[in-house]
Amino acid sequence: MLIAQIKYWMKFSFYTAFVIASLIACTSQSQVGIIREKTPLDSYIYPTFHHLDTNLKYQYPFINFNANAFRFYSPQSANWEHLFQDFRNMVTEKNCKLNFYHIGGSHLQADVYTHDIRTYLQTHWLDIPGERGLIFPFDLANTNNPWNYEFKSKNNWKTYRSVNFNRPVGIDFGLLGVVIETPDSIVEIVFRHDKTDVKPGFTRLRVYHNKGPFPFELNFGSDEMLIVNKFRNETLGYTEAVFTDPVDTFNLQFTRLIAGPYNLQINGFQLSNTYAGISYTTIGINGAGLYTYLANKNFEEQLAESPPDFFAFSVGTNDANVPYSSFNPDVFKYNLESMMKKVLAANPDCAILLTVPNDAGYKKKYLNKNVAREREVIIELAKKYECPVWDFYGIMGELGSSRTWKSNGLMRSDLVHFTVPGYHLKADLFIDAFEKWFQQMEKRKYIN
């Protein structure tokens, strides 16, 4: 019996050491000090197509495929060189994980085109399935939920969204910008993946909830026997359960241990594991702008818990959705740069991608010239921070192109949101641009 226990703990210790080594492997490889020829990033000539079917240029001749690239406005970018080394190491060694984040508004809450990107990143290379990352139970918040997972609960929930300027006292928003709350003493939440083949199992489930003393006991029903550890962080406001084997669903019950009143608040769930690959978290709320996330009290501390290796900003549609005379480029610049600083505070080496919002109609009938003004600000910041720009406004065809996309079945009648085929096309364009960037970096020559 004693020998068996010793063997078990030796095995457990080895496994733990392996997991820790896996988590830091990406970083350690890129810190070797690889020197490469200073081939200017901003002078690279991108191919028109890489991932995309070339027949699309005949199907959609109004799209500027030549503009589809992560375009640099600086000759060098240490952070994007860092990402390339880490990404290539992850693909070849299959022993580390990279945290990808993508922030926006309603386009990302729907999670159609971003889930296409996630699917590509988690299936294109063998044996690096990655993890789902942070998710929010929008089903329980009486709003549209991403189609690729679902939450169920019989409890009644009140929803708070950080898009509202009058924020209630006692509600502190985190990374995802939404909170649901219930006064019930017994709460049950069920999660499962839905309509997707990409559902990497998770061996850790973190529940972000109220900070401070948390008078609830968590129970996972039939999966309780798989749990080897539970621990709580009252300072950051989360409880985490560790499973012996990967699971891809949960039935979680909260039981309050004290008499009320005490409202349970949920800020989100994090699904993680020890697999190599990409963790791809989307942050999106209907109606969100940069101003939405700037005031979220717990944004930075939650981001620092899983520091970003890549962070894409696809925010600006709602910031620009005002009359021309009301849009202030200086305010937009201040807000965007402030958000970029929050990201770099979590990881100074993070590769930031700035994306220009799509062309959109203002009140369905007016051309919105503010997006072009946002692009000027975005390029200015891209030069300052040595990060690339994905100019989707230019790719679409610039001012008024939303009408053309609508007439071709790619945009809805509101001239802001895309149809499902439109979102899938947007994802394909993004993936194509990503592959062009990777090819560009591979072509840079080594000095030693």
CATH architecture of the largest domain: 3-Layer(aba) Sandwich
**What is the count of β-strands?**
19
Biggest beta-sheet profile: 7 strands, antiparallel
Shape annotation: globular
Hey, roughly how much beta strand do the residues contain?
15-25%
Q: If you average the pLDDT, what whole number results? A: 91
How far is the first residue's CA from the last residue's CA?
54 Å
Sequence stretches where pLDDT stays below 50 over 5 or more residues: 1-25, 28-33
Helix share of residues? 25-40%
Oligomerization status of the protein chains: single chain
The gyration radius over C-alpha positions equals 23 Å
The CATH class of the largest domain is Alpha Beta
Tally of helical segments: 12
Structural class: alpha+beta
For the record, the count of structural domains works out to 2
The CATH topology of the largest domain, please? Rossmann fold
Q: Going by CATH, what is the homologous superfamily of the largest domain?
A: SGNH hydrolase
Q: What would you say this structure looks like, in words?
A:
This is SGNH hydrolase-type esterase domain-containing protein. GO terms for molecular function: hydrolase activity, acting on ester bonds. Residues 271-424 form the SGNH hydrolase-type esterase domain. InterPro entries: Ester_Hydrolysis_Enzymes (IPR051532), SGNH_hydro (IPR013830), SGNH_hydro_sf (IPR036514). With 448 residues, the chain is an alpha+beta fold. The protein folds into two domains: 1-130 and 277-448, SGNH hydrolase (Rossmann fold, 3-Layer(aba) Sandwich), CATH 3.40.50; 131-274, Jelly Rolls (Sandwich), CATH 2.60.120.1360. It is 33% helix and 23% strand. The strands form four sheets. Strands 3, 5, 6, 8, 10, 11 and 13 form a seven-stranded antiparallel sheet that branches. A six-stranded mixed sheet has the order 1-19-16-15-2-14, with helices on both faces. Helix 8 links the parallel strand 15 (310-313) and strand 16 (351-356). Helix 5 (113-123) crosses helix 12 (420-442) and helix 7 (299-305) runs parallel beside helix 8. It starts with a helix and ends in a 6-residue tail after the last helix.
